[in-house]
Structures are given as structure tokens and as C-alpha cells.
Amino acid sequence: MQATIHHNSRKYTIDLTEPLDISIAIDTSKQHINAWYLDDPEIVPVASGDWVGSVAEGADVNFNNISFNPHSHITHTECVGHITEEVYSINKHLNTFFFLAEVVTIAPEQLENGDFVISKKQLQHNLGNKKRDAIVIRTIPNLLDKKEMRYSNTNPPYMLEEAAVYLKEKGIKHLLIDLPSVDKEKDDGKLLSHNAFWNTQGVLRFDATITEFIYVPNNVVDGTYFLNLMVAPFENDATPSKPILYKIEM
Fold first, then answer.
1. Which one-letter DSSP state was computed for residue 226?
2. Per-residue CA distances from 186 to 141, 153, 154 (Å)
3. Per-residue model confidence as pLDDT tens digits over 52-105
């Protein structure tokens, strides 16, 4: 089934039967991603007296409680409320969900201090003169173990402030990345790239989002796609999300 999308006075055709899911789900049956020094999430049946919410244990339905943190355990999308004193809600500020996106693959560069980073120069090389609503960043190496990495205290790669400034000035509204954060794990609370992207020293970019903990399979080639950025309806600074890419029919 095809759909036609009108975007900036152009028509694009996508095939809705071929979605490319770049989210990572919570699956408590195996090891999966975790960051920020928290215990793993839990999905457990409700227990009330002798009743347990599990069909396998005699109940009529499966009836589970789920305990998790979106920043630590799952693909999630966040708004500027993640770093402001007033907690703005992603559910209120993300009001449209289809965006023209560029998928790029980047090998983080190593600094003299040993950190691996994404630089402005790398983004400029990948985006050039392209005008996009969103950028989807796949870092390499891109092995399946990204879906089960334990990131706490590992100093994973991050984005330099100059790169986030470049994306803001480029007009990118939606930044998606396969890392736990666009910022350094331990940076004394500076959050340079978050602040730069959301322009916290000027007019706040309420309609801009950052999505972390994605996974872009290797069979998804670099290039232009339409992104459907679906979020769960939580009134919170961040919420679990399910970003889907669609190839553009030529």
C-alpha cells in the first residue's frame, strides 16, 4: 500500500508495507540495553492475595506491571523539558509525526583524551547542502550487541557541542542517535550538546526532539527516508518511542 506525502511543495511516495523499525524494545527475557546506573526494568504479573495475573498460573488474563526508565532502558524521545527547571511534556510539544530524514553512518573520531566523538566536520560531510527535518545517526561499529550494551561507566561516544550547534543552525528539528546520550556520560552536568541543540541560551526550541537508543540495521543504507516518529502518550519530558523509516519510491 502506497501513500503520498506533501512536503515543502513536493510530493513523495512511500510504501507503507515496508516499514524499517529502528527502535529497541524492552525484553526482560534476555539482556538488553541499560544506562545511567539503574537496575534492569521489570515486567511482572500483578499479585493480589492468592490471585496472580498470569494465564499460566490460572488467571483469565495476563495482567502485568511494567517498571522502567525511558532514558535507561528503551528507545526514547525527549524534548527540552529534559533539561529545564520547568518540566515540559514531549506529549504536548511533539504535534506532527512525519519528517523528511537523512540516515548517516559515522565512525566517531578519537580525541587526545581518548574520548570518541561526533564532530561538526563529520556532519557537514554527510549533510552538505541537504535540507532535512531529521537526522538519523548510525555509529560504527554497528554490531547487534548494541541492543544489549551495558553503558554505565563505559564513557560511550558522544556529540561535540559544535556538532549540535551545526544541526540547530542547519534547521534539523529531530536528532536520532544510537547512543545513550548526545552528551558525554560524565560531564559535570554541562550537557553541552543538549543545551546547544535546544538553544537554552536563546529562544527554546520546543518543537525539537532528541531520540536516543535507536538501532539502525546494517541493511538500511544511508540516504533520504520519511521518518514516522511515534511516541507513547506520557506527560513527561521523555517517553518510549518507535521511530519507523520508510523508503521513498523513485
1. E
2. 22, 9, 10
3. 999 999 999 999 999 999 999 999 999 999 999 998 999 999 999 999 999 999
Residue located via cell numbers 520519511? 226
- The distance from CA 32 to its chain's CA centroid, rounded to whole angstroms, is 16
Q: pTM value?
A: 0.96
Sequence-ordered list of residues with C-beta below 8 angstroms from that of 103, at least 6 positions apart, any chain: 136, 138, 216, 220, 221, 222, 223, 224, 225, 245
Residue 123, phi then psi, degrees to nearest 5: -70, -40
Q: What are the cell numbers at 171?
A: 534547521
The C-alpha cell at 129 is 547542502
How many CB atoms are located within 10 Å of the residue 28 CB?
A: 16
Give me the sign of the Cα torsion angle 41, 43, 49, 50: negative
- The chain-wide mean pLDDT, for the chain, equals 96
Which residues does 82 contact at the CB level (< 8 Å), separation at least 6?
Answer: 194, 210, 237, 238
Distance separating alpha carbons of residues 85 and 171, to the nearest angstrom: 25
